[in-house]
Specification:
By secondary structure, the chain is of the alpha/beta class. It is built from six helices and seven strands.
């Protein structure tokens, strides 16, 4: 009898959790799963589309500032390299952030960098193909890719919820989707779009 009452209490408590919290717990579990797998289990998914070149810290800071990142944001960095953009978003603004990266070596490096920065609880790195990743919950997306890759991402970016911001370092989206704002950061351009 006692076990049955305890079981019913637990069941009742679980069923009363708000759906949003439950979905958030599931999303976090999915994001954290690749981090708990041994590094040897991760492998290169395919050859990268671009050579990894880290954005200068001044550009990282300007991108996050231009996007008006806050603690309420979920920032996705597509092609996150060593993780500097997601880590900075968490450090400076308290945002939650996800880095999407093809190279397992960079995923491991970024995860280590997040731990050292003290933001591992707010930042996750996944070894995934950015074209296959679901980033529909993003409120901010950052990019440092190439023009053709930016343009391939336009349908997914335009499908983000209204008010989401997209910031690209170096390259715009082409003539069919002009940026609403541009900024020169010591000779390096960044571009902003807001989803309407």
């Amino acid at each position: 009898m006692r076990d049955r009452v305890g079981h019913e209490d637990r069941e009742s408590a679980l069923s009363s959790l708000p759906m949003k919290l439950l979905r958030l717990a599931v999303a976090i579990a999915i994001l954290v799963a690749p981090l708990t797998a041994p590094l040897t289990a991760q492998k290169r998914l395919r050859a990268p589309d671009v050579k990894y070149v880290p954005s200068p810290q001044s550009v990282v800071d300007a991108m996050l500032e231009l996007a008006h990142v806050t603690a309420a944001d979920i920032v996705y960095d597509l092609g996150s390299g060593d993780g500097r953009i997601p880590i900075r978003a968490a450090q400076r603004y308290g945002a939650r952030a996800v880095g999407v990266e093809l190279e397992p070596r960079l995923v491991a490096e970024a995860s280590d960098n997040a731990k050292r920065a003290g933001v591992a609880g707010r930042v996750w790195f996944v070894n995934q193909d950015l074209f296959e990743t679901d980033f529909s919950d993003a409120t901010v997306v950052t990019l440092f890719l190439m023009p053709r890759l930016n343009q391939q991402l336009i349908p997914k970016l335009k499908a983000l919820r209204p008010g989401a911001r997209v910031v690209s370092h170096m390259w715009d989206m082409g003539p069919d989707w002009p940026p609403e704002q541009t900024q020169d950061v010591s000779g390096l351009m960044i571009y902003l779009w807001t989803i309407r």
